[in-house]
Design goal:
Elements (H helix, E strand, L loop, with lengths): L1 H9 L4 H7 L10 H14 L7 H10 L2 H21 L20
């Protein structure tokens, strides 16, 4: 999240948007599409994956098929990074002044 928070800030994401993505604040004040993207990320990242038909219908109402494929691809890639970096003890590079969330064992 380190590099993504830094790049997101450079690209115009506000501190509240970054905090919501890092699960530090309530996302309900974000636009509906952003709320859905964050919830989709959580659902895709869950074990087992938890994307119900009802939620997918909400997603399809807010995003095009191309956007859903792109979101899914980015989420899957970030899950790959997390599954690779954490076990190998890859630490953040301090690209972003926002401290990473604390991961509880």
């Amino acid at each position: 999240m380190d590099i993504h928070a830094a790049v997101g800030g450079d690209e115009g994401l506000s501190q509240p948007q970054i905090d919501a993505a890092l699960l530090r604040t309530d996302a309900s004040k974000l636009p509906v599409r952003e709320q859905l993207a964050l919830e989709y990320s959580d659902r895709v990242s869950a074990t087992p994956v938890d994307v119900s038909d009802e939620f997918f219908a909400k997603l399809r109402a807010a995003f095009s098929e191309v956007e859903i494929v792109e979101l899914t691809s980015h989420i899957a890639h970030e899950n790959y990074n997390a599954k690779s970096n954490r076990p190998l003890r890859v630490e953040p590079n301090d690209f972003c002044p926002i401290p990473p969330p604390i991961v509880k064992d």
